[in-house]
Amino acid sequence: MRQFKQEVGEARLCEKARPETPETATDESNQEHVEAAIQDNCQTEQKNSAPKLEISKERVGHITSLLRFRKVCARWVP
After folding, report:
1. Is 71 in contact with 64 (CB distance < 8 Å)?
2. DSSP of 27-75, one letter per residue?
3. CA–CA separation, 3 vs 11, rounded Å?
């Protein structure tokens, strides 16, 4: 059991972030892109914005809440 714990501990230390994935999806550049998309078309949807930015729909929703946008009658408003 002790040997197993040591191997698992060593495996966790060896794991590194993959270079192709960003540290966070809510960085300033993604926030600027989401805000620009909303400014261009106030009826844009999260499911359409997410693939363009290569982030998840959940992250787009989180960014819109950080920017204090909300949906009113199918339009994003500040």
Report:
1. no
2. SHHHHHHHHHHHHH-TT--HHHHHHHHTS-HHHHHHHHHHTT-EEETTE
3. 12
Query: Half-sphere exposure of 16 toward its Cβ, with a 13 Å CA cutoff?
Result: 4
What is the tens place of the pLDDT at every residue in 16-69? Answer: 555 665 567 778 888 999 999 888 988 888 888 889 888 889 999 999 999 998
Could you state, in order of their start, the residue ranges of all structural domains in the chain?
A: 27-78
pLDDT at 32: 92
Rounded-to-integer distance, Cα 65 and Cα 70, Å: 7
**Whole-angstrom Cα distance, residue 5 to residue 8?**
5
